[in-house]
Amino acid sequence: MDQMKPQVSSPPRPDGQDDTTERLLSRRQFVRRVGVAGATLAVAGPVLAACGTTSTTTKASSSGSASAPTGNRKKIGFSQPDTSASIWSPLMLGAQQECQARGYLLLESHANSKLDAQLSEVQTWIAEGVGAVVCLPLDNNAIIPLINQAHSKGVKFLDYSDNALPGVDGWVIFDNLQGAKLVGDYAGKWVNETLGGKAEVALLTHYIQLTGKQRIDGCVAALQAVAPGAKVVAQHEGVLSPDTFPAFQSMLQAHPNINVAICIADEGCAGVEQAFMATHPSAQRIKDMFICGFDGSAPVIQAIGTGGPIRATGALDAVGIGKASMETAANAIEGKTPTKINFPYVLCTAQTTALNQKLLAELK
Fold it and tell me: Would you give the DSSP letter of residue 157?
């Protein structure tokens, strides 16, 4: 399990710049509470984080002489703004465990993927003078002014998921390129073993977000390094199943022989599968279809074990990520390290039954 330990050093920047350079990537409304009527696979929620490994983070060591926090400074607001995501409960479980261990009170978000509600919550926490806010922004540009507001009140502000906010006091992010290589390598081996090395590939993407770009580009690069005969024939922006369903329908009409579909997130896999099954594929056609995603949602992990066309996901550890988010926040408040943690992915396939069962147990 050592290869799954979170890294506490700053990862290389994909643009070649150092970590202090501002990256103002627009996130837009990356998540929406939506469902797909009649979908063959239930969608558990928007793409906000993920589930996966069982690693714990390196414990903090003192690197400063900050006085012990008191009063409202003993509170940490976690602005993970959607409670319907399948990872929300284990994420908050990890956060609660770390807060209790460090003597902090966890303040949970109830913004429900609404930007105005997220902004109001964060502003309220800042006004109260909490010790720190950990934020997954629904809109980077809207959140950025709050960082200065927080600092003016002595509140630490940390980024969650993307490391796309300037001037923050720390972050917990995901090693997207490492996870993309895991999924891409597996997909390439599957193409070689099942399809004789040739495949028509469809991409369901979200390039406006750094995580989306790294996952898709990294996965395709790894896939084609292993199976050079795999060719991308179609691409469309789409994260959740209501978007991926019509998009994949159109892709199949234009390219009926598509046999690999890479989804930017697990929450799009249901729509892809539904569109594929609507073509009334033969047993052999189903056997020759490969659908994969990222995050490690419960519905996708369950689907992987059924023998259907959904075959892999790059998963993250929700409990571990929750703990790490509060660890970095508490460390920032107390002047300790680490305040920056980069979480690795693990690969879930039909062959990783023990891992799949463990992750599903955490997602209940």
Answer: E
Residue 44 lies in a domain: no
Find the largest Cα–Cα distance for the chain: 67
In a domain, 278, yes or no: yes
CATH of the domain at 242: 3.40.50.2300
Going by C-alpha positions, the residue among 299, 328, 350 that lies closest to residue 172 is 328
Residue with tokens 């075959």: 311
Alpha carbons 125 and 351: distance in angstroms, whole number: 45
Q: Does residue 180 belong to any structural domain of this protein?
A: yes
Examine residue 227 and state whether it is found in any structural domain, yes or no: yes
Amino acid identity of residue 95, one-letter, is A
With the CA atoms of 171, 176, 177 and 182 taken in that order, what torsion angle do they form, in degrees rounded to the nearest 10? 140
- Closest residue by Cα to residue 342 from 158, 76, 161: 161
pLDDT at site 5: 59
Q: What percent of the chain has pLDDT over 70?
A: 81
Instruction: Encode 63-90: b = buried (16+ Cβ within 10 Å), e = exposed.
Output: eeeeeebeeebbbbbbbbbbbbbbbbbb
Q: What angle do the packed helices 318-334 and 88-102 form, to 10 degrees?
A: 40
Angle between helices 269-277 and 241-254 (to 10 degrees): 40
**Domain of 272, in residue numbers:** 176-315
* Cis? peptide before 338, omega within 30° of 0: yes
**3 state DSSP class of 81:** coil
Whole-model pTM: value is 0.73
